[in-house]
Every structure is written in C-alpha cells, then in structure tokens.
C-alpha cells in the first residue's frame, strides 16, 4: 500500500503514498505477471506487478508466534497438489454468488490472480485460511461498526498476507501497512518505543476510518481499494487523464502497474477465501488461542520482568503486544495497555509492585539525573595545593622557572595550580601559588 501523509481537509488535492507490503526481515524484488488482454477482437500482452504479499514463501509466514503455536502443519486437512480448472462461466457465476456490496467483475486479469492463489500459492492460502481465526473477528467488528462492506476483511491478505510483523522497505508496518504519518493522522502512536501500526486491533479500527474517508470521496469501492494502494492523488490524476471517467476499469491504463494488479488481486482473494474447497484447498488445523484481556500499566515495565515473575513466555508477550518495539512499555510517560492471557491477569495484579521493582536498575539504564565532573585542573588543585593562596602578577621577562625559585615551588606545581599545559606565560596575568 502506498500513501503520503495528508491533511484530510485537502484530501482530494494531496496524494497519499502507501507502500506495498513487505516483511521487516527481507525486502524482496517486485514480481510481475504477464497477462493477455482481449478487447474488441484484438489481443495485447501486459506485464502487471504483483502485490508484494504474493511473493512471500510459506516459511516466512509461519514465523509469527501465534502461527508457530496454534497452527498445526501436520494436519492440513485434504489440501492436495491437484487444482481443478474451471471455465470462465464458472468463475463468473461463483463471483456473482458472493454476498457482497462491492462489485467483483471477472476478466483475464482476475482469472490470472485466481490461478496464482489456487496454483503456486495454494499452501499460502491454506495458512491464511487458518490465520483468519486470529484476525477476522477483529476485522469484522471494526468494519461493521463503521458500516463498511465485510468483503474488506480480506484487504490485509493483499497488504500483508496476514502477517502482523510485515514491514515495507519504505516503512509501512503491520497488517494494514500504514505509513508513519498516515498512522499518526488516524491516531496510531509511533515513537522509539511504541508503534501502534503493529497493533492488530488499533490498526484495524484506524484502517476502517481511513476506508470510510476514502469512500466519502469516491463513492465507488473499486476506486477506494485502488486509492488505498496508490493514494487519492494518483487516482485523481488517472481520472483527469481518462477525461473525467470514474470507473476503475476505464481509468485502468492510466494507473501505476502495481495498482492495476491490486483490485484484481483483491477480487481473487475474495474468490479463493470463499471457494477454496472447490480447488482442493483446506485450512491448516488451528487451535483456538487462550482468551486474553488487557490491563493498564502506569509505570515503566519490561517484558523480562513479566517473564521472570509471572512465568509467561517472552515470545507470547511480544506476540500479544506487538506495538512495543523494544520489549519496554513506557508507562511513566502515560498509562499504557498490556494484553496477557486471562490466567496471568490476576498474577500480574497481585504481584505488580514486585514486578515493577524486579531488576529495574538493570533493565532501565537511562539515568534521570547525572552529575557533571569538575574540570581536570580544579581536581588537581584540590589534591596538590596546600597552604595559603597567593597571587603573583607576571612581569616582563619573568619565566615559570624564575617565579618557581622565588617562591620555593616547582614549575610543575605552578602548571598544575593554574591549569597550564606548557611553560608559556604572559606579562600582566596572575598565577595562583600555594605557600
């Protein structure tokens, strides 16, 4: 997803630049697919860029803690390597039967993306069908609250392949791939310790508000999806170049390559998440995670303190609280939210004073105050100077040697008492002498 931060009052005039979704640990090259487009009896070949989420290997999707602990790769139902092929008329009929407000037409490009999801990406689809158990209730609740089409719940499949740790090479993060400025505009806090774009719940509600704002501009869901990818500014330019037409498929040739594939990929995602069984794809076996709840944190808290005292694993705490970037909850700055399994909530409440104090000096090393050391010369004087302090005004022709002999001290003592790094002195200045 690409976007630029905007002032919503100037939404139409100012382009968003949301980036295509990528995983934080690896920026992969953009892949493209060749499509033969038939129009009025003519054929032409076109190269369409794939959403980055369609280039991820299955192994990378399974790195998330929830996936590793609740999805059983050994029990993937009846998913097979055989993918039945169907005629265009079958795809047209199936798409028309999806109970949807959003228009989901069929053409060669949509067919190409369906073939990819049901072909080489079928194991990824099996994983994402299982991951839906974690995230779909969150998506559906927010979309329903804002009166948005529930078909939009499959948008994060295109954005992040349902990986909450997804991060693009230009900085978009989370399931919904918000850029930093746009996330802040929709209430997602980001600083050195917190990135709420990675919080599945907060980011989902922010994305619902953003999608609602886009629909208020275009009144067309395909244009909303396209704008979510490349930004309203780019869509507005395409509309102007197309002579004012506001149909996605009529401005198609004026859109960036990645946006040309974005809406077809979204339609294909809705198709495959509805008709996966028809293509011999089955969700991987998924265990339902333990129930969780949130508590308020009012002091700085490190995940290691929780792990040591409560016995909850660090990986689980990280997975349930992905918005905290450095395993630190900065409760001193303002009250923060911590999500834990239900069976650890009472443990935290009963032992919170012990938890906050445990290894605090070791884990929080930033000093609140610091003393400034004295200058080197002052420190020396305190150890070498003794007796009464006398001041000597330097006369023309005097050297440190002659002054030292006069007062019965050494040249080094004079240098130490006066912070001198060499024997050069100037007439008219005063020297400190302890006698």
How would you characterize this protein structure?
By secondary structure, the protein is α+β, with helices and mostly antiparallel strands. It folds into three domains: 42-284, Orthogonal Bundle (Lysozyme); 290-361, no CATH class; 387-432, Roll (Membrane-bound Lytic Murein Transglycosylase D, Chain A), CATH 3.10.350.10. Helices cover 43% and strands 11% of the residues. The chain is built from 18 helices and ten strands. The strands form five sheets. It has a two-stranded antiparallel sheet. A two-stranded antiparallel ribbon has the order 3-4. It has a two-stranded antiparallel sheet with strand order 5-8. Strand 1 and strand 2 form a beta hairpin. Helix 9 (221-230) crosses helix 10, helix 12 (303-310) packs across helix 14 (342-357) and helix 16 crosses helix 18. The protein is elongated, with a radius of gyration of 33 Å. One of its GO terms (cellular component) is membrane.
Any chance you could write out the topology, listing elements then pairs?
Layout: E1 32-39, E2 42-49, H1 58-61, H2 65-70, E3 71-72, H3 88-97, H4 108-118, H5 122-145, H6 155-160, H7 180-185, H8 200-218, H9 221-230, H10 232-241, H11 257-275, E4 285-286, E5 292-297, E6 300-302, H12 303-310, H13 314-320, E7 328-330, E8 336-341, H14 342-357, H15 360-363, H16 376-384, E9 389-393, H17 400-407, H18 411-418, E10 430-434
């Amino acid at each position: 997803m690409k976007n630029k931060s905007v002032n919503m009052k100037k939404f139409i005039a100012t382009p968003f630049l949301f980036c295509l979704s990528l995983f934080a640990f690896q920026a992969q090259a953009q892949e493209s697919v060749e499509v033969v487009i038939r129009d009025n009896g003519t054929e032409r070949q076109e190269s369409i860029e794939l959403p980055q989420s369609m280039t991820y290997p299955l192994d990378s999707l399974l790195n998330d803690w929830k996936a590793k602990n609740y999805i059983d790769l050994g029990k993937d139902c009846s998913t097979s390597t055989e993918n039945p092929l169907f005629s265009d008329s079958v795809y047209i009929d199936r798409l028309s039967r999806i109970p949807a407000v959003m228009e989901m037409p069929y053409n060669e490009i949509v067919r190409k993306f369906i073939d990819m999801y049901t072909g080489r990406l079928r194991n990824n689809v099996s994983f994402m069908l299982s991951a839906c158990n974690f995230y779909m209730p969150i998506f559906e609740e927010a979309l329903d609250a804002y009166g948005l089409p529930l078909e939009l719940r499959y948008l994060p499949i295109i954005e992040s392949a349902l990986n909450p740790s997804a991060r693009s090479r230009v900085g978009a993060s989370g399931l919904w791939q918000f850029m930093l400025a746009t996330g802040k505009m929709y209430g997602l806090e980001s600083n050195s310790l917190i990135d709420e774009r990675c919080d599945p719940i907060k980011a989902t509600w922010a994305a619902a508000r953003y999608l609602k704002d886009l629909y208020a501009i275009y009144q067309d869901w395909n244009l909303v999806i396209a704008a979510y990818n490349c930004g309203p500014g780019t869509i507005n330019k395409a509309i102007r170049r197309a002579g004012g037409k506001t149909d996605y498929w009529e401005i198609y040739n004026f859109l960036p390559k990645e946006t040309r594939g974005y809406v077809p990929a979204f339609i294909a995602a809705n198709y495959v998440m509805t008709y996966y069984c028809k293509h011999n794809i089955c969700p991987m076996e998924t265990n339902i995670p333990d129930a969780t709840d949130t508590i308020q944190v009012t002091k700085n808290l490190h995940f290691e303190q929780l792990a040591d005292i409560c016995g909850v694993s660090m990986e689980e705490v990280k997975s349930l609280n992905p918005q905290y970037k450095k395993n630190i909850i900065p409760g001193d700055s303002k009250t923060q939210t911590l999500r834990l399994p239900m069976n650890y909530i009472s443990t935290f409440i009963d032992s919170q004073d012990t938890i906050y104090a445990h290894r605090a000096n070791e884990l929080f090393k930033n000093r609140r105050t610091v003393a400034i050391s004295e200058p080197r010369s002052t420190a020396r004087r305190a150890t070498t100077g003794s007796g009464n302090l006398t001041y000597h005004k330097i006369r023309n022709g005097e050297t440190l040697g002659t002054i030292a002999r006069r007062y019965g001290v050494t040249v080094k003592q004079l240098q130490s008492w006066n912070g001198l790094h060499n024997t050069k002195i100037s007439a008219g200045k005063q020297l400190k002498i302890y006698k």
